[in-house]
Structure formats: structure tokens, C-alpha cells
Amino acid sequence: MIAFILSRHAPPHQQQLTERSLLMSFPHIHVVHVQPRGMAEQMNSVLSLTNDPWFLTLEAGEMVRPEMDEELMQLIQGLKEPVAGGIIQYSNLHFPKPGSSPVPRGPLLWFRDAVMARPNAGFQEAACFPFERYFLLEKQYELASRYEWLEIITDSLILSPLQTPFWKKETEEWKFLSPLLQAVSSRTTGVGTDALPEEPMVTIVICAHNDSAYLPWAVRSVMAQSFSQWELIVIDDGSTDDTKCVIQQLPKDTRVRTYLLEENCGKSFALNYALERARGQWLLELDADDWLDPACVDTLLEAAQDRPDAIAVCAGHVEWTERMNKQLLYNGVKLPVPPHSSRSLIDEAMPVAPRMFKVAILRDHSGWNMEAPFEGRLYEDLEILTRLALRHEIHFVFEPLYHRRIRSTSITHRQQFDTYRQWRTWMLDQIRKSAPIP
Q1: Quick one: DSSP state of residue 48?
Q2: Is residue 251 part of a domain?
Q3: Of the candidates 325, 319, 327, 386, the residue with the CA atom closest to the CA atom of residue 355
Q4: Phi, psi of 177, deg, nearest 5
Q5: CB atoms within 10 A of CB 435
Q6: Cα angle vertex 404, ends 401, 407, to 5°?
Q7: What pairing do the DSSP bridges indicate for beta strands 85-90 and 109-111?
Q8: Contact 372, 423 (CB under 8 A)
Q9: Quick one: how far is CA 268 from the chain centroid?
Q10: I need a labelling partner for 198 at 20 to 30 A (CA). Which of 109, 256, 354, 417 fits?
């Protein structure tokens, strides 16, 4: 049997304590220390080369008591059909249970063949999963749709005394991430088998330009929606990285359509390209490096039904700051701030996401403005909202339904005063020509 010890930046002596306790309980176990970067990749590499049917995962600092070996062997020998593995349940009141952390510990025992079974073989690697510290839980939830998880009732596992640093905001992070992990896992099974017979109610549009590292996570969030009567249009806007290859590897779902633009034409052009092909009554924008809450489409549509005069429905979002290693840190909830007039949208210059528009109204207004400064490549979100707000009601939902990634390598054009001032002057002139400023 293999035992993986996840160091997660734990001091060396904590890793050594875990290893020593394992060897006392399992004298013939093969211990593998997993380094903090690329944990899933390391484990997948080892698992691809072994035939051992079972393996363990422990956090550095955890310790097992000698009786753990016999307990697990009895559990395994009593199995009558394949399972995913085993999750710890604590038996005695005197044994310390997990502390204040809201995050489940995750499985202790894993069945290798279940983990490595296709189509989702192995653990989700960091390139497609921006929350690497939860990769074990992600796999646990994914396997739960196909296998049973056993409860290991024991007090033979002593938890690590190490705590997650406060600056990682573990409670908030888990609050917003856990619904997506569980929703993704419960809805990915069978993807690509049958299309829904109904016409889509919502067209979700992703315009990608050199976003190969982010696109899979955005698409996963679409697949996880609680409302399933959608279609997804993915447009590769002249990417020069491997976005095209990533698109070809997306789930084979007949609700997903992809298009390739040979040249980079800009966001407004790509959105109009999608608008021409949209079959839904509503169009929802999703940036390729962002993702949706599982209830996003459902909640926006419910709000639209409550306000039949609204031609657009927007909501709040959660901000995540991308670190240099591509992992994300929670940065707070951003809710819409009234009033929502055309002038306030320009003056505040704050990102509004998500944005869902009535397709018929977008077509009546000729979609996104290619004649705007910078060929509609900048501030296209503010331009369309401001233009529509002059003549129509935009409804806002005051809860976060979208997750926005703040990339460390990107340029926030709203912070470039001269660029935004030029666009703002032009936009105010357009408003004056159209109607008095509200």
C-alpha cells in the first residue's frame, strides 16, 4: 500500500512525525511525500506506475495509531463490491474532533481503480483547477456520483495541530467554493449523451483570447448550473496559445457550440458574432477566466420573471485575486450600488457581473458598438449597459452569482486614467446626443 503525505508547507518535523506513525502501524507501507506545488500531478504520476489497489492520503502533522492497520484490513476484506474508498468518522467523545475549520478533512482511504477510471482519470491538476488545496475533496465529490464511500468509524487518526493561515480566509473561500465543487461533480456524469429537447432559454457566451489555462474551469461552471435549459457558445477570438486545443477537449455536450475566428477581432466583434447565432431568449456573458455560481442562471431568470419590464438582469460577484502560482485568494463580495442610471454607471466605472440581456433587445440595438473608441475592445461592458439604461430598465439582484478573477498579469484599463477619460468623454457625448442624463 502507498501512503501520500501532503506537506502543504508544514515544517519537516511534522512530516517526519506522520511518516514514523505510519511505519509503526503499516511496516511495509510505501511512503511518498507530496510537495506543495503540483500535488495532483505528483500523485497521478505515482498512481499510474503502481498496481497497489489501495492508497492513503494524510496531511503532514497527522498521526495514525498502531491499531489503524488492522481496522483498515478488516474493512477492506469485508467489501463485496468496489467502493471509492473510506472517509473518517470519529467514534469516541474523548477523541478531539476537527476544530473550527469548515472544510471537511476528505478521504483517508482510496481505491486506486476508482480514482484512475476514465473519463475523469486521476486527480484534477492545477492547470484546470485554481483551488489546488481542495483537489482531494474535488475527487471525493466526483467519485460520489459513481461509487459508494465507506465510513471509517475510528479514533485511530490524530489530526494535525497545524492551522490554515488567517490570510487565506478559509471560511469565506469554502463557503463560495463548496457549492460549485459538489454541483460540478453531480452534473458531469453523462455529459454529452443527449441534448435537451427544449429550445434553450439562455445562451451563455464565452469569448476567449489566449485563455487556455482558464477556459476549462469556466466551462465546468456552466455544466454545473442548476438550470439546464441553456446553450453555450465558445468563441476563440484569434488566440495564439493552445486555446484551440483546449476547446477541442471540452465535454462533448450537444448544447455546446464552438467557433474559431482566425484573427483577433476584439470582444465586441466576438460578442456580436455570438449574438447572431444565439438561440436563447436571454444572453449571459461569461469571461473565459471567470466562472458562474451554480445557481446563477436559475436566479437571474427568476428575477427576470418577477420583473417582465426588465431587459437586462445583473447581480453581484465574488472577487478572487490570482497569485503568481495561478492559485486564487478570496477578495470579498462586490454587490451593485444604487442608483443604476447611465450616469452612475459611467461615474463609478465599476465592473458589473454577471450581465444577462434579452436577446431581442440586443438585436434591436445592434448589439455591441464596434464604432466606440478602441474598436469596442475596452469598456464594452459599460458601453452596452449605459446605452441600454437610457431607454430601458436594468434589474439588479443583490447577491453574488458570479466569480471574477483579478489576474496579476493583466492590465486593469479602468485604472489607466487617460484611457478611461478618453472613453468617458466619448460616452457622455453619446448620452447627450441621445437623451438628457438621468
Answers
A1: T
A2: yes
A3: 386
A4: -90, -35
A5: 10
A6: 170
A7: antiparallel
A8: yes
A9: 25
A10: 354
Question: Per the domain annotation, does 189 fall within a domain?
Answer: no
Angle between helices 135-144 and 170-187 (to 10 degrees): 30
Domain hosting 243: range is 202-434
End-to-end CA distance of the chain: 70
DSSP secondary structure string for all residues of 361-406:
HHHHTTSS-TTSGGGG-SSHHHHHHHHHHTTSEEEEEEEEEEEEEE
* Maximum Cα interatomic distance, the chain, rounded to a whole number of Å: 81
What is the DSSP-derived secondary structure letter of residue 224?
Answer: T
User: Residue 299: which residues within 8 A CB-CB, separation 6 or more?
Assistant: 315, 397, 399, 401
Q: Is 64 left (phi over 0), alpha (psi -120 to 50) or beta?
A: beta
DSSP-based three-state secondary structure for 149: strand
Name the packing angle between helices 380-389 and 417-434 (round to 10°). Answer: 20
What's the pLDDT tens digit per position in 141-194?
A: 999 989 999 999 888 999 888 888 888 888 999 999 999 998 865 444 433 334
pLDDT-flagged residues of the chain (< 50): 93-98, 186-195, 197, 413-414, 437-438
Q: Collapsing DSSP states into helix, strand and coil, what is residue 173?
A: helix
Q: What is the pTM of this model?
A: 0.88
Following CA atoms 341, 386, 203, 234 in sequence, which dihedral angle do they give, to the nearest 10 degrees?
A: -140
Q: Nearest CA to 59 among 131, 111, 8, 122?
A: 8
**From CA 64, how far away is CA 2, in angstroms rounded?**
15
| Distance (Å, whole) CA 423 – CA 305 | 34
Print burial letters for 361-395: b (CB count within 10 Å at least 16), e (below 16): bbeebebbbeebbeebbbbbbbbbbbbbbbebebb
- The C-alpha cell that represents 344 in the structure block: 452612475
If asked whether residues 146 and 294 sit together in one domain, one would say: no
The predicted structure's pLDDT at residue 326: 79
Specify if 173 maps to a domain: no
CA distance 412 to 391: 29
Phi, psi of 316 (to 5 degrees): -90, 175
Q: How many residues does the structure list for the chain?
A: 438
CB 25 within 8 A of CB 63: no
The identity of residue 352, as a single letter, is V
| 217 close to 188: Cβ distance less than 8 angstroms | no
- What stretch of H or E contains 16? helix 12-25
Query: In terms of domains, do 231 and 354 share one?
Result: yes
Task: Say yes or no: 255 and 135 in one domain.
Answer: no
